[in-house]
Amino acid sequence: MTLHPLPVFTDNYIWCLHDNQTAYVVDPGQADSVLDYLKDRSLDLKGILITHHHWDHVSGIAPLVAAYPGIPVWGPATETIPGCTQPLSGGDTIELAWGITFGVIDVPGHTLGHIAYYAKETPKGPLLFCGDTLFSSGCGRLFEGTPEQMHDSLQTLAALPVETTVCCTHEYTTANLKFAQAVEPDNEDVAKRIKEVMKLRDQNLPSLPSSIGLELKVNPFLRADKESVLRTLQSKCGERPANVLASFATLRQWKDNF
């Protein structure tokens, strides 16, 4: 089984999960790249998974459904997803062609109806498609939700097995790591990750996927309760955050203007 990120636009990734015949795509903001990839490998598209309603995640749905009539389009039940045939909420499950079951997790914050897809058992190990909720060394902006919602969503994802492969949908890692280093200048894992990502990006290779275990080491938004983070925020703001939620909210506001 192959897990492949298709780069589109400036920094989006459309994830394609496939074997030698059958494929599924996640958050296709554009169709041409998907259609070319499928054609080059003689793959049959069997379904589309959508995490949230933003245009750069849904604009490819209609052309793909036109090319592959009748395929299911899964998406969040509380958001308007063009062409969605199977609306989903947290606790629902979907089964792909290989008998792989993905559970649906509600992860509001970036948008109010945002969902993620998590499979505990795949040939790739535990697998998470998290849209714009969790990024490598970062998290999504709060366009619709609150800091509390996003923090809760991230904590849910952070509790998944450390070996879980994390498929984010934007190549934001380099910029996110600069912020992570500003938050934790002495974090050796962040320094190591910066070198790894620089090498990948110099070769025009994706920095993704990541893993839950790695994100727990280098992602400041999953480390809002760490003493090293709290010390930095106290130095920056003049007072120590009252609790982990205040720490998270301060981090998100700082990142918005970083």
UniProtKB/TrEMBL annotation:
Residues binding Zn(2+) 2 are D56, H57, D132, H170
Q: Where does Zn(2+) 1 bind?
A: H52, H54, H110, D132
Q: Which reaction does it catalyse?
A: an S-(2-hydroxyacyl)glutathione + H2O = a 2-hydroxy carboxylate + glutathione + H(+)
| Pathway membership | Secondary metabolite metabolism; methylglyoxal degradation; (R)-lactate from methylglyoxal: step 2/2
The EC number of this protein is 3.1.2.6
An example molecular function term from Gene Ontology annotations = metal ion binding
| Keyword annotations | Hydrolase, Metal-binding, Zinc
GO BP, sorted A to Z = methylglyoxal catabolic process to D-lactate via S-lactoyl-glutathione
Q: How is the cofactor bound?
A: Binds 2 Zn(2+) ions per subunit.
InterPro entries named in the record: Clx_II_MBL, Glyoxalase_II_hydrolase, HAGH_C, Hydroxyacylglutathione_Hdrlase, Metallo-B-lactamas, RibonucZ/Hydroxyglut_hydro
Entry keyword Phosphoprotein: no
One Pfam match, given by its short name, reads HAGH_C
Q: Which domain of life is it from?
A: Bacteria
The UniProt record lists the keyword Metal-binding:
yes
Metallo-beta-lactamase domain location = 11-170
Which cofactors does it use? Zn(2+)
Q: HAMAP family per the record? A: Glyoxalase_2
Hey, which family's this protein in?
Answer: Belongs to the metallo-beta-lactamase superfamily. Glyoxalase II family.
What does it do? Thiolesterase that catalyzes the hydrolysis of S-D-lactoyl-glutathione to form glutathione and D-lactic acid.
Partners and quaternary state?
Answer: Monomer.
The name on file for this protein is Hydroxyacylglutathione hydrolase
The organism's lineage is: Bacteria, Pseudomonadati, Pseudomonadota, Gammaproteobacteria, Pseudomonadales
